[in-house]
TrEMBL record:
Boundaries of every HTH deoR-type domain copy: 3-58
Protein name stated in the entry: DeoR/GlpR transcriptional regulator
Presence of keyword Transcription regulation: yes
Keywords: DNA-binding, Transcription, Transcription regulation
InterPro entries: Carb_Metab_HTH_regulators, DeoR-like_C, DeoR_HTH, NagB/RpiA_transferase-like, Tscrpt_reg_HTH_DeoR_CS, WH-like_DNA-bd_sf, WH_DNA-bd_sf
Species of the source: Marivivens donghaensis
Keyword hit for Repeat: no
PROSITE patterns assigned: HTH_DEOR_1 (PS00894), HTH_DEOR_2 (PS51000)
Amino acid sequence: MSSDDRRRDILEQLLAHGTVQSADIERRHKVSRMTVHRDLDALVAEGWAARVRGGITVSGDPSFESDYRFRALQALPEKARMAEAAAALVKDGMTVGLGYGSTVATVVPHLAQCSGVTVVTGSLPIIEAVAQIPQINLVVVGGTLIRRFAGLFGPAAEDAYKTLSLDLCILSSAAATLPDVFHPDERVVAAKQGLLKAASKSILMMGQSKLNGRALHRLCGLEEIDTLVTDQPLKDESALTLCGTHLIVA
């Protein structure tokens, strides 16, 4: 098996289980420890995972954002509650920008209950989902595909947002230490910032597990967010009060 094939297999195991151990890979592929270390180092360098003792993980590290396929399977009950709460803020006839996260994607089925809504997005899973709902108008923002994030990014996407006027945008992100919101990838940050600037109102959907961390790039501050939707009560709401951000606990 070639190194590329072996690394693809390691990645599939990683996405299925969240963490893989070096010893398991040695046994599975019958290769040396040094070969495994090179494979894992390559996956970490490409941004697929973070190092942990004895292996790599896609769970619980805000220094990177894991593959969309893995994130889409996580915290489903919490995401469902937040999606219902966020969708309740969408009114008939609105033009709504939807961000790139798996949390935001759960809003889409609820929008079928609205009349005359237009969705603007560069997220491939959201594009696919909205395309199946005839009563929702769809505007696709182009750009360069980043497969790990299942979306279209880069200058083309950023320029497209500059030409748009949205009633509302709904975003999520990888980490926050309120009042600041962060993301580890500058390409994702640039696209989401474009979406924020294009919208009159904004909703940030973030579960409690993400509200106690930081990542490399600052996406925005709470002063740019009208409503924070989360899944558990906050211990300290002072940052929201100071910034005038409304809190919804789903």
